[in-house]
Design brief:
This protein is of the alpha+beta class.
Length: 331
């Protein structure tokens, strides 16, 4: 209900009555005054949709300049012709800055993955949480829709203290969620596997017109379908690393032939070896950051036969040796 209260606040700042939006979602005024109360996804969709149209502002009050109804549909349309998800998201972020000037969005690439960064250009104050939750949820939903599959999040980070309703965040952003109060300028971040950015766009203008007839579910709840074999392979390698010893073993675990496994991964713009490398790299970074194990033990833990081959691979991933990386984390 704290998010509904933010919507009611948008009405109050315009000197308008929010009762119509609350009624559309079957929320009573007394319920709306209880920040700890809960509503369904359908109610959130209803109150948001009514308010966006009535206020003619798809930001629902957090943008300094209201975003007229249809603004986000325009951003998706401008990204639809991109050759890959990475290009589409960069285009979406760049165009967003043309219609909204108090926050900035960008995509950063790091050794540990891709990061969607939402940064305040001017302090959002009490609107910080509502802005960052709604805008990052929107962008993640659009990304999933563009490739027609759920994109797993490595983690979500928010630059404010853990709210009383923090337990709802893993529902909105499946995966680890981190809260850290910070000085200005504040940044919210979504982390995901950088290889997702190479996936092809699977939507067209016809699909966009159909989606825009009921677009709000993309911004309210995570995309429900996970169609990517990439995600299944990655999860299998994380939970059952012994299955990665051969393509045949891994394919059998996923009820596929080895030939089908390689073909489908190629269609998704990746390969089994690339996913193995990404999982090994992620695990290696985690062990080097959090522990003091000898490099020989780290190498064995991530699947290398000896320390020398691990050092060579790690340097190819990050541009530095494991020892130099670990030293940098301690400084």
């Amino acid at each position: 209900m704290a998010f509904v209260q933010a919507i009611v606040g948008a009405y109050l700042r315009q000197g308008r009555d929010a009762s119509g939006a609350l009624k559309a979602a079957q929320i009573t005024p007394s319920q709306a005054q209880k920040p700890g109360a809960r509503i369904t996804a359908a109610q959130m969709e209803a109150v948001s949709g009514h308010a966006m149209r009535e206020l003619d502002d798809e930001s629902l009050g957090w943008s300094r300049r209201p975003l007229p109804w249809g603004s986000y549909g325009m951003l998706i349309r401008a990204s639809l012709s991109a050759p890959s998800l990475g290009v589409a998201l960069k285009r979406w972020c760049r165009h967003h800055s043309l219609i909204c000037d108090n926050v900035a969005l960008r995509i950063d690439i790091h050794p540990q993955g891709a990061c969607v960064v939402l940064q305040e250009r001017e302090p959002l104050g009490e609107l910080r949480e509502f802005c960052m939750v709604s805008l990052l949820r929107n962008l993640h939903g659009v990304a999933c829709w563009l490739i027609d599959s759920r994109l797993a999040l490595q983690r979500a980070e928010f630059p404010f203290a853990e709210p009383a309703h923090a337990d709802v965040y893993p529902t909105i952003f499946p995966g680890p969620v981190v809260f850290h109060p910070t000085d200005e300028p504040a940044q919210g971040r979504l982390w995901l596997d950088a290889r997702y950015l190479g996936l092809p766009i699977r939507r067209d203008e016809k699909a966009l017109r159909q989606m825009l007839q009921r677009a709000l579910p993309l911004t309210v709840m995570p995309y429900r379908r996970d169609r990517l074999l990439l995600a299944q392979v990655r999860q299998a390698l994380l939970t059952q690393p012994e299955a990665g010893r051969s393509a045949a073993d891994l394919a059998g675990l996923l009820n596929l032939s080895a030939r089908t496994l390689h073909r489908q991964l190629k269609e998704e713009g990746t390969s089994l070896q690339a996913i193995k490398d990404a999982v090994r790299r992620e695990r290696a970074l985690e062990l080097l950051q959090r522990g003091r194990q000898p490099l020989k033990q780290v190498a064995a833990a991530v699947g290398f036969l000896n320390e020398k081959s691990f050092i060579r691979a790690f340097k190819g991933w990050t541009g530095q040796t494991p020892a130099a990386f670990r030293q940098g984390q301690r400084m």
